[in-house]
Amino acid sequence: PAETEVAGTRTIAVFGATGAQGGSLVKALVAGGEFKVRALTRNVDSEKAKAIAALSSEIELVHADLDDVASIEKAFAGCYGAYVVTNFWEHMDIAREITQYENAVAAAKTTDLKHVVLSTFEDTRKIVTNKDDYKIFDEKWVVPHLDGKGEHNEKFQAEIPSTLFFTSFYYENFIMFGMGPQKHGDDSPYAITMPMGDSKLVMTSVEDIGKMAAAIFSDSSLIGKSVYVASDHLTVNEIAAEFGKLMGEDVVYNAVPPSVYAGFGFPGAEEIANMFQVYDEYAELFTSTRNLEDVKKVFEPKPFAVWLEENKAAFTS
């Protein structure tokens, strides 16, 4: 019993507490009961912040801004660990995202945190061998929103007691980024359009990201290691079939080349096209690192079909 009492006094500071990953981790930590939670947000008065605080009396809402090292040091003070996640899509500025990671690492050093979980991704430039087949951004990036996160993984891990936490394509992207089935004319069936070939897309539910991150904080033997999370591996044909069952409609996979997808004109289209091209051409890397059997040793991941059923309203309204 003495051990649990000690554990209960340790606090985890969670960046992105009002966002997808951080919010999911806050819920998982509260459910686990092993740690107190310091939910970090730039605006403690926002509706989202209040909703997170209302989840439990064990949650402390604290202002922190990844662009401001002093605010991070203040937020980390007295904590056992911290979860660091950035949001590239908010500003689409790679240099700023890298600086945010550097700020968090610097603050973790000065506050002597014992375990930092860095939400990250592979630097795809170290994976892609045929760069001539890709649009290169600013003469150096293949997939900016992944490469910026991944560029300094080894360096950061060497500087602070940390676990590199590799996530995957969210199921929620089908809702948040409108990647779900679309009709392109009255006579045409619903279609999911992606440049993924016949490869399996490695996906995760945001909920499972939180569960895995919480499990990492409970296991200090993971300091200095890399942990990966995924919930399902499906081809886009299989994804379309699941949508079809849910909606009671024909849903087809509209497979397009990356160059066509890149021309769709929405913000980040060219970069997302590159992302899918990497996922397609190097699918074996992603399915092997994000091995579902490894996840099952920790908890039972949520299959895509189950997640769809839970979120039926988003696709059948």
Give a verbal description of the structure.
This protein has 317 residues and is of the alpha/beta class. It is 44% helix and 17% strand. It has 17 helices and twelve strands. It has helices at residues 2-8, 20-32, 47-53, 69-76, 88-91, 94-110, 144-150, 153-159, 173-176, 206-217, 236-247, 258-262, 269-281, 283-289, 292-296, 304-310, 312-316; strands spanning 11-14, 36-41, 59-63, 81-84, 115-120, 162-166, 169-170, 190-194, 200-204, 226-228, 232-235, 251-255. Strands 3-2-1-4-5-6-10 form a seven-stranded parallel β-sheet, with helices on both faces. It has a three-stranded mixed β-sheet with strand order 7-9-11. α4 packs across α6. It is globular, with a radius of gyration of 20 Å. The N and C termini lie far apart (50 Å). Residues 1-7 have low confidence and may be disordered.
Features:
317 residues, disordered N terminus, 44% helix, 17 helices, alpha/beta, seven-stranded parallel sheet, single chain, three-stranded mixed sheet
Summarize the structure.
The chain is of the alpha/beta class and 317 residues long. It is built from 17 helices and twelve strands.
